[in-house]
Each structure stands twice: as C-alpha cells, then as structure tokens.
Specification:
This protein has 363 residues and is of the alpha/beta class. Helix content is 40%, strand content 15%. The chain is globular, with a radius of gyration of 23 Å.
Length: 363
C-alpha cells in the first residue's frame, strides 16, 4: 500500500523534470528571447510565412486531369522573389492573394515576370493572402520598414482592390489583424520551437495544404453572357465610407513616413467579371451574385466605390506628387481565360499583369 504514493511521487518528479527540460529547449531554441526579452520590434503578421518551401499539386485548382506542380518559396524575411546577394535597387510589391499568388509556381508570378521584363531592379513579392489596406499599413510599419533598406527601396507597388471591399462596411478579417485564438496560433507559429516544427511536419502531410487548396478551389467558371449594369451614383452614401477613407489615407501616410524616398504606385486591379464602362458605371457578369446569392452586394459596384475613394484621397493628399495612380480596372488587361476562379490569375494572366505594370514603370 505504501508503494503507490512513492510511485506517484517518482512519476510526478520525472514529469516535472521532463517539463523543465522541454521548457529549457523551448526557451533557447525558440525565438522567445529574441522577440520578447530583447529590444526586438516583433509584431505578429497574420498569414505570414517565413523560410519555407511549399509544394502543391494544383490540378484541382486548374480543373486539370494532369498534375500541376507548384513550388512556393518564402525566404527568411517572408518574401517571395527576393534575389541574393542584394546588388540591385528593390521594388516591393504589396497586395493580397492576387499578389501572393499561392498557386502560381516560382518564376511565373507577375512579380517574377517583372524581374525578367525590367532586370535592372529586384522585384520583391510581399503579398499576403487575404490582406487588405488595413493589413498593408501594419505590414509597412511592422515588417517591410524593418526588413528592407529604405535607401535601397526604389518603389512600392500596391496591387489592391478586391480585399478592400469589406473595409467599406468596417469589416476586418483574420488576415488583417489577429485576435483571440488566431493571435495565440500566430505567436506560437512565429516563436515556439516545438510548435513551428510540428506545424512543418503537419503541413508536409498535406492537411493544411488541402485546406488552402479547398479555399482556392476552381469552379467550372463561366461568366454570364448577360450581366447587370450598376451605377455608383445610385447608392452612393459617402458618409458611410469615412472609415475606409481614413484607412486608405493612413496606408499612404505610413508608407511615405517609412519610405520617404520611394515612389508609390497604386494599381487598381481589374478582374474579368467586371467590365467598367467608366469610373462610375460597371457591367457585372459574376453568376454567383445573381443565381445563388441574389441579396449579395455587387462585387463590381463595391470596387467602384473603393476606386473612387482611392482616387479622391490621392488627389487631396499632401504628398500626391510621390504617388502614381494606375486605374488598371478601366483597361481590358485580363480576359475570362486568364483566371481560374473569377479573380485569381493563371500564368497567362500573371504575365499580362506584369506587362501592364511594366508600361507604367518604364515611363
């Protein structure tokens, strides 16, 4: 009868010793001291990937019977397409998934294509899947301004539009700012030795890849032959967009404050389902809006509001001479066959985007 307490005591001591051993390994092999005990300016950036190589078979994305191998690389600073050694001036591209281009393999993203088209610069991909202008401002302050040499950053390209729609209604996503459980997950992913390595193994087994693939899953896309025309003047209530105006203005201010010598290009992205007749009228051909979600706000009308507000803010901005607005949405750059899910481009669409942006950078 007396042996049981002794066994329990021995097990407890061994368990505590094991926890201490694990804690010491975690403390010294993880990044807790570097990011929290030192004077580091570490801030968690949702959906950010560092020092990873991911491989996908994206046949489902492209509705292909054959394998579509995708190699996706992020360096230790979190960038795609960054050349080393750093001997060229940098042009940084910032945007959401249409910049990140998770399912375009290395060398074929629009940022990679610009490296080939304008070889005198190193085009760096700082896109974050799902991020809007709200998240871009945080990334400028907490990531890009700390990772890049400001004197060597020639220009910053914002390729934006679709993700800013939610900001019109004061909505943020987990890709803009991490809260609650998502915040804890990011802290562990960025700093924990055991959690981050377990996550790499877990991802290697394909579980998270499968979730990402499903989120970007291609539908048999077929734009409507006859869509609907929207006019931004019909429902324009400028007072409801005060928050977005402030958000976009803050993004420009943060960028200029941190990169005062860099040129800024705001590319207002075009998607094939929206045929913009001018900056106030659009022909919307997205079938999901009318067939499955009749009460849903028009994607294209929202984009009209977003782009009109951006133009208004830039025209009234104190440092507007540093900013070039590129209304890509008014140009027929992308065709229906250039996207795999109404919004995200395939390799052909990515090359068209690069050539379009090249024409402005060369001026």
């Amino acid at each position: 009868m007396k042996r049981q307490p002794k066994i329990a005591l021995v097990l407890s001591i061994n368990f505590l010793a094991f926890l201490c051993f694990i804690s010491i390994i975690e403390l010294f092999l993880g990044k807790w001291i570097k990011n929290f005990a030192s004077k580091s300016d570490y801030k968690p950036i949702p959906a950010m990937i560092k020092n990873r190589v991911l491989k996908y078979d994206a046949r489902e994305i492209y509705s292909s019977k054959n394998s579509v191998p995708i190699i996706y690389k992020r360096d230790k600073l979190g960038y795609r397409s960054r050349s080393l050694p750093d001997t060229k001036e940098v042009i940084l591209a910032i945007g959401g998934s249409t910049t990140d281009e998770r399912f375009i393999t290395e060398g074929e993203t629009w940022v990679d294509n610009l490296d080939t088209l304008i070889p005198e610069f190193d085009f760096i991909n700082g896109g974050i899947d799902g991020q809007s202008s709200y998240g871009h401002r945080i990334a400028i302050k907490e990531w890009h301004s700390l990772a890049l040499e400001k004197e060597n950053t020639n220009s910053i390209i914002f390729y934006i539009g679709i993700n800013d729609r939610k900001l019109l209604r004061n909505q943020l996503t987990k890709y803009d700012i991490a809260q609650g459980y998502e915040y804890i997950k990011i802290i562990l992913k960025d700093n924990s030795f055991f959690y981050s390595n377990a996550l790499k193994v877990f991802n290697g087994l394909g579980s998270k890849k499968g979730a990402i693939l499903r989120r970007h899953m291609a539908r048999e896309i077929e734009f409507l032959k006859k869509g609907k025309i929207y006019d931004s003047h019909e429902r324009l209530n400028r007072s409801s967009f005060i928050s977005y105006k402030k958000t976009f203005s803050n993004l420009l201010s943060e960028t200029i404050n941190n990169f005062p010598n860099s040129r800024i290009f705001v590319v207002q992205q075009q998607i094939p389902g929206c045929k913009f007749l001018n900056n106030h009228r659009v022909y919307d051909r997205h079938p999901l809006i009318y067939e499955k979600h009749p009460d849903m706000k028009s994607i294209c009308l929202d984009l009209l509001y977003v782009y009109n507000i951006q133009e208004e803010i830039i025209n009234s901005f104190d440092f507007k001479e540093s900013i070039t607005l590129i209304p890509m949405y008014l140009q027929p750059v992308l065709d229906d066959d250039d996207v795999y899910d109404y919004i995200h481009t395939n390799r052909d669409g990515s090359l068209k985007i690069a050539k379009f942006i090249q024409s402005f950078l060369r001026r």
